[in-house]
Design brief:
By secondary structure, this protein is mainly alpha-helical. Helices cover 74% and strands 0% of the residues. Helix 1 packs across helix 2 and helix 2 runs antiparallel to helix 3.
Length: 93
């Protein structure tokens, strides 16, 4: 939480590597959830979008931006929990 999230919804590799070290079960859950969601999305993209490069961009952008949105939601939950427990002021540093 010491590093801010750039442009509000872009994911940071620091956050995900920190999450993998501190909360391995949550990291496994989010990885499995993305796999279950994006395999069907990829199949739809491959049938609906014709140029291969456009398919790759569409699927990659969706995965990348969804990771940022999930990271933002997790950060909000972590800050809310810290405030409730009285651990610090609850601000993102």
């Amino acid at each position: 939480m010491s590093r801010p999230q750039p442009f509000v919804i872009l994911p940071t590799m620091w956050f995900w590597s920190q999450l993998r070290r501190t909360e391995p079960r949550l990291h496994v859950f989010t990885t499995l959830l993305w796999a279950l969601l994006f395999i069907p999305l990829s199949l739809v993209a491959f049938t609906m979008i014709q140029p291969l490069w456009a398919q790759a961009i569409a699927v990659s952008a969706t995965v990348f931006l969804s990771a940022g949105i999930v990271e933002k939601a997790l950060r909000v939950q972590i800050l809310r929990r810290r405030r409730a427990l009285g651990c610090g002021d609850g601000r993102e540093h």
